[in-house]
Every structure is written in C-alpha cells, then in structure tokens.
Design a protein that fits this description.
This protein is mainly α. 68% of the residues lie in helices and 2% in strands. The chain has one domain. It holds the Pfam family MPAB_Lcp_cat.
Length: 285
C-alpha cells in the first residue's frame, strides 16, 4: 500500500514537472551511452537532482523578474501565464539534458535554445530594447538561477554541499551558461556574490514583475489538491529572497515566522517530494 501511494505521488509530481514526454525523455537522458560533462559525484548533479530545486526554481523566477528587460522578454514571449506548466516542463527538460545527458544531447539542447533566443527581441514598457541573446541578460538569468538553486539546496537539500563543493557547483553550472552565450560567468561563490551585486542598479519594480509574483504566489496554475504543498514551496522560496528583492515585489519580511514555521514547512514538503521521487527499493525475494 505504501509503495503504491509512493508511486502515485511520484507519477503525479513527475508528470506535472516533466510533461507527457517526461518518462521517455528521462529514459533517453539517463539510458543513452556516451560521454557526459558531469558525473553523479559532481556537485551540479547533486544539486540539480534534489527536491530543493522546486523551491529554488520559484525563487529564481521571482528574482529574475526584477530585471525589467528580462521580465519584458518573459512577459511578451514566453506565454508563462497561458501555459506555465509548458514553460516549466521545457525548462526542467533543458536542465536535465545539460546536467545528466550526454555531451551530444546537451549541445543539441543548447543549440536549440540559442536559436530561440535569436528570435526573441522587443521593447519593454519603459522603451528599453531587449534581446534574449544579449550576453548581459543571459548572465543575469544564470546568476539568479544558480544563486537560487544553491541557496535552496543549502537550506533544504538532502545532502548540502561543503564550501569547496559550493564553489565547484558555481563553476560547473557556468559551463552551460557560457555555451548559451553569457559573458563573465562566475567561477566560485565569491564571484557569484559580486556579480549579483553588480546588477542591483539595473533592478526595479515593474507592473509585469508584480503581476508575475502575484500569479506565482497567489493564483498558481495548480490543482486544488496540491495547493497546500505548493503554498509551502512558495513560502519557502520567498523566505530565501533577500530583503532588497522583496520590497519591489510587495512581498513581506517576516524573519521570526520564516525561521520557524516557513522553514519547517519547506523541510517537510521537500522531504516528501524527495521521498516520492526516489526509486522504490528493489525486492530481495
């Protein structure tokens, strides 16, 4: 009975995140023979395969929205409101391909994204022009992602990294960013912190960013049956945002609650997701 419930939960979570082709993609990614950039012993494999990515992914989207040009590109081209799960499935598939797949499959995925980026251009509401292929914007998206993934893993990961492994993670995650066209990608956590600080003057509150935050946090496109666990994930993600990033998004700062109830909820839901997604033990009979 327990294993049946576990299997049903894993299937529901995996189908929502990976999409209808997820099972086939997972089998191909992990089952294809060939050279890989990373191994199961690498920090990037440990972080990107952990349930804490659910928290890190929400935080990354919130943080990325503070750059008006990056947010304009998402708002005008990605269709994240009309098809948010489709966007999530494409993003999770890309991360899986470039982390766990063969070099051939990873490079193919990177090439496909680069071709899409070449077509994504436009003008933000303030008149600023943007291009998804802009190395400076690509760098911001990358910084927000790896900072979010790393902080979520530090707090909610099953096996947090030590300081040396955290630096290795930043360096390994940067390989894909450089292949996508980002410039001056950080190689360790000190460089990551400095790079994030250098964007502070570019970030601000916009109607699109605030609308995206409300959409993700108050009216997420999830069934009522999973609203409660999603709420715990979202609260955990907000709890990891720095104070300077919350004010522009109209998000609260509740240090005592976040250190107790929010953290406990985040631990509970990420442990539950990790349990559900882990392979069932093989029978010995």
């Amino acid at each position: 009975m327990i294993e049946r419930v576990r299997g049903q939960a894993a299937s529901a979570i995996f189908a929502r995140v990976a999409g209808p082709e997820g099972e086939g993609r997972r089998a191909r990614i992990h089952g294809t023979q060939g050279e890989r950039r990373f191994t199961p012993d690498d920090p990037v494999w440990r972080v990107h395969g952990d349930a804490s990515m659910f928290v890190g992914g929400i935080r990354a989207l919130l943080l990325q929205s503070l750059h008006p040009l990056a947010m304009a590109g998402v708002d005008q081209h990605s269709g994240f409101r009309g098809d948010p799960w489709g966007r999530l499935q494409r993003t999770s598939g890309f991360i899986a391909e470039t982390t766990f797949g063969t070099v051939e499959h990873a490079d193919r995925a990177i090439g496909a994204v680069r071709r899409i980026h070449e077509r994504v251009r436009g003008t933000a509401d303030d008149g600023g022009e943007y291009a998804a292929s802009d190395p400076h914007l690509l760098r911001w998206v990358h910084l927000a992602e790896i900072d979010s993934f790393l902080r979520a893993h530090d707090r909610y990961g099953a096996r947090p990294l030590d300081p040396e492994e955290r630096d290795v993670y930043v360096a390994q995650a940067g390989i894909t960013a450089r292949l996508l066209g980002a410039d001056d990608v950080p190689h360790d956590t000190a460089e990551l912190a400095a790079a994030l600080a250098s964007y502070r003057s570019d970030l601000r509150s916009t109607p699109a960013a605030r609308a995206a935050a409300r959409f993700m946090l108050l009216s997420p496109p999830v069934p009522w049956t999973v609203r409660a666990p999603y709420g715990l994930l979202a609260a955990a993600a907000v709890g990891l945002l720095p104070r300077w990033a919350r004010r522009p998004l109209r998000l609260p700062w509740l240090p005592v609650t976040e250190a107790t109830a929010v953290r406990a909820g985040g631990v509970a839901v990420t442990r539950a997701i990790g349990w559900a997604m882990a392979p069932a033990p093989r029978s010995t009979t």
